[in-house]
Design brief:
Elements: E1 2-3, E2 10-11, H1 22-35, H2 41-46, H3 61-67, H4 71-79, H5 95-102, H6 105-113, H7 128-134, H8 138-146, H9 161-167, H10 171-179
Antiparallel strand pairs: 1-2
Helix pairs in contact: 1-3, 3-4, 3-5, 4-6, 5-6, 5-7, 6-8, 7-8, 7-9, 9-10
Length: 188
Amino acid sequence: MQAINDGPLIDTAKSALPLPSPERLQELLFDAARLGRDDIIPSLLQAGAEIEGQDGRGYTALVLASYNGQQSTTVLLLSLGARPDGPVASRGNNALMGVAFKGYTTIAQILLEAGADANFANTAGQTALMMAALFDRREIIDLLVASGADPRLRDAAGNTAASVAEAQGNEGLALFLRQLLPLETKPS
């Protein structure tokens, strides 16, 4: 078992050092995910870190890895059992929302292929499509729409992906998103 500290890795299996507390193991997993330390994540999980554990903001290791552009770590965590949409009880931002916000198309594809829900909504009703519309992430918007993202969905404030784009002054994207709506739901 290896643990992260402020310096080099310490092989605790070969030393007399005790294992870190469960809380510290979890922190180490979050740090390893954020930094893309694929080499130590399996050992941290084996030592007791929870793959679906959440940090103080409700983020899992998968969210932290994907949001920080750690493609191989995202794949590793999914292969080790991380749920693409996070813990069942969590309704915060999922990994797909983070990559839609940041513009990491390849990681978005990985998450969708792993079963991420293109229409997953956080507690405010926001979706990955809304996050992508906020920053005009066209490739991700196309990917989400192809994966079944519904442009009709509204958040708790009544916003759709099109109205988010429009609020950002992006009339072209707003028009594109409105053209995706079925005829019976298009605004007049």
